[in-house]
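Backbone-to-sequence.
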């Protein structure tokens, strides 16, 4: 590469003059046309000596000119041009001179640049490969820490990835699956009812139960991933161990079968929505069993949806009147203007629109059986007077009649209101209250017997799965959310929600995101409320102490406390001593008394 001032070499210069210049400037040299102010050619060292030998020193330099050159603005243009078609490339510089590149020289420059670019590209690729390898390792660690089994195949069913949970669930090392085809694994009996095969056939998400040869049962959900042409590119399957859940389901089914065969135990443990393991509810049902065979008037109290009507029906079925009528009256659903005529009936012509032959009321229809007055707190005071007479004397008058009629009925009433408070406010008759309140039965709301939620949940699942021909189950996370929900609508709300989940579930397993918003949020009522920031250990001890205090009041014995808190009995004894709580009557052997 040589830099020449454009004014030093021109067409009129002699070869001898150029020889003197070449000693200091070197070759190649540019031939400048001063008239046109342009470069007309390039004189190489070889061309100069050849012309000098042939023509002598007096010959003009244009005899040695090489017009095979290319003018470019910068080196980048040379590297991007078809430079093999020219012998020289000329690049002007900022001072008015030129850089001259011979073709062979330019090749070396270009090759060096390409080599540098290649090396730089290789360095970048190595860096990208390192980053990708690091991400792959991190992804494998995340996948292998999953409790659920993760199984990935390509669009042909070849197994590409299996998580570490595979061996725990199947008893077979994951290497036995890797690289194999899912169809061959199914033929070998390693996988039954393959979800992956169903996804490949149906080209959509599929959920199903699977059983492994070692007896483990799982719920598997396969999801297809499609390429831009709509073909399945990958199938990702997540399998969750439900062996314990299935075992619990079988145990519940067995228990249900035994309960159905023994009617006495049906009442002891409750029927349907009154199925319970709660000590207070068991005591309530035991009391209901005792009074069922008597003629005592019963008042059932409890929030809406707890099963007051069901308990009334159970009492009737266990009474001496079980073969006679059970007439249920919802006092809050009958218009005020019709309550009297609906209850006591009316005579012919008693009022406009009355039937010509009159009509018997619900009280008469219950003659010989049981009259159940639901929501009795809704009755107006004027009807309460007549109801009091019915309760005391078992007599009544039809609307429009002066004739007393006598009936043989047993009265069970129910309310979700505080009748005693209403009585004090003059909204409910005191004498009627005490007549109805002979045997009070108070049903606990569902939030106070959360231990019953899993059993009621399974009961309703079986009912609605059979009704709608589904096979829906509830995930562990969903069950935990359902247990912590406050259930303002009680058992009725739980029953309706289970039916909704069975009908609307898109898969056979209900995950947390499938639950209604009010359940996922815990109904906005956290189980533990903190009023400030305290050390974590202090917070843990405070909660433990509160739980133990509550458990002592409710369960009395260390065995029951341990069962409720799901810890060992010795742990309960140790923590009671730690917090200095009263252990009167609570010791490791107190439950054997």
């Amino acid at each position: 590469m040589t830099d020449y001032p454009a004014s030093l070499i021109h067409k009129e210069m002699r070869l001898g003059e150029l020889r003197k210049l070449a000693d200091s400037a070197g070759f190649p040299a540019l031939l400048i046309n001063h008239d046109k102010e342009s470069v007309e050619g390039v004189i190489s060292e070889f061309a100069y000596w050849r012309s000098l030998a042939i023509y002598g020193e007096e010959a003009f330099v244009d005899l040695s000119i090489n017009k095979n050159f290319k003018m470019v603005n910068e080196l980048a243009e040379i590297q991007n041009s078809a430079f093999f078609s020219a012998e020289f490339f000329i690049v002007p510089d900022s001072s008015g001179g030129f850089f001259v590149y011979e073709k062979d020289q330019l090749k070396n420059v270009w090759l060096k640049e390409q080599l540098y670019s290649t090396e730089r590209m290789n360095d970048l690729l190595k860096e990208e490969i390192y980053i990708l390898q690091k991400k792959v390792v991190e992804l494998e660690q995340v996948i292998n820490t999953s409790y659920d089994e993760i199984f990935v195949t390509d669009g042909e069913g070849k197994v590409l990835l299996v998580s570490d949970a595979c061996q725990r669930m199947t008893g077979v090392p994951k290497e036995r699956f890797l690289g194999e085809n899912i169809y061959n694994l199914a033929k070998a009996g390693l996988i039954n009812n393959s979800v992956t095969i169903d996804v490949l056939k149906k080209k959509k998400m599929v959920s199903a139960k699977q059983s492994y040869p070692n007896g483990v049962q799982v719920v598997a959900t396969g999801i297809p991933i499609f390429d831009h042409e709509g073909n399945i590119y990958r199938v990702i399957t997540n399998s969750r161990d439900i062996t314990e859940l299935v075992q619990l389901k079988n145990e519940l089914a067995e228990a249900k079968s035994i309960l159905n065969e023994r009617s006495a135990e049906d009442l002891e443990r409750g029927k349907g929505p009154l199925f319970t393991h709660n000590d207070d509810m068991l005591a309530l049902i035991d009391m209901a069993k005792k009074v069922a065979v008597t003629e005592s008037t019963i008042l059932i109290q409890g929030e809406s949806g707890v099963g007051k009507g069901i308990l009334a029906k159970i009492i009737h079925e266990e009474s001496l009147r079980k073969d006679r009528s059970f007439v249920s009256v919802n006092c809050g659903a009958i218009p005020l203007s019709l309550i009297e005529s609906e209850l006591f009936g009316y005579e012919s012509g008693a009022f406009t629109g009355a039937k010509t032959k009159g009509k018997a009321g619900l009280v008469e229809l219950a003659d010989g059986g049981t009259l159940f007055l639901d929501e009795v707190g809704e009755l107006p005071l004027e009807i309460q007077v007549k109801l009091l007479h019915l309760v005391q004397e078992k007599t009544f008058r039809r609307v429009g009649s002066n004739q007393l009629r006598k009936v043989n009925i047993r009265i069970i009433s129910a309310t979700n209101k505080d009748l005693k408070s209403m009585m004090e406010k003059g909204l409910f008759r005191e004498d009627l209250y005490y007549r109805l309140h002979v045997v009070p039965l108070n049903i606990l709301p569902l939030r106070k017997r959360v231990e019953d939620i899993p059993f009621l949940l399974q009961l309703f699942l079986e009912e609605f799965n059979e009704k709608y021909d589904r096979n829906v189950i509830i995930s562990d996370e969903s069950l935990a959310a359902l247990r912590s929900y406050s259930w303002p609508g009680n058992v009725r709300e739980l029953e309706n929600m289970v039916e909704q989940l069975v009908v609307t579930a898109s898969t056979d397993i209900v995950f947390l995101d499938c639950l209604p918003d009010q359940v996922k949020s815990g109904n906005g009522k956290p189980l533990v409320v903190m009023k400030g920031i305290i050390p974590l250990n202090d917070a843990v001890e405070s909660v433990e102490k509160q739980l133990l205090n509550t458990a002592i009041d409710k369960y009395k014995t260390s065995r029951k406390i341990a069962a409720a808190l799901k810890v060992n009995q010795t742990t309960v004894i140790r923590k009671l001593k730690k917090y200095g709580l009263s252990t009167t009557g609570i010791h490791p052997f107190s439950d054997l008394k």
